[in-house]
Amino acid sequence: MTLPDERYRAVVQTKKFLIEILNTPRIPKAIKDGARHCLRHYPSEWDMQQVSQINSDVFAEKMEPVTRMFKAYHEEQKEEQNDKTI
What we know:
By secondary structure, the protein is mainly alpha-helical. It has helices at 4-23, 29-39, 45-54, 65-85.
């Protein structure tokens, strides 16, 4: 179960990780080229903020603790229901 704020952080942290790969001297050129390729059209901070405003059910920069609790409960209920149908 991934909540919208966790998904948002994952995208932001992945970008930082790819940039770190580019800035680390002993990483092979092929890996750096792959990281550079991934970053070429990677969403910017502005893009992420825009999508979180448009679709906060998928990406949310931050969630209030109570909202997070209810969303987690709802996601768990959906997963349990899916497990029963399998």
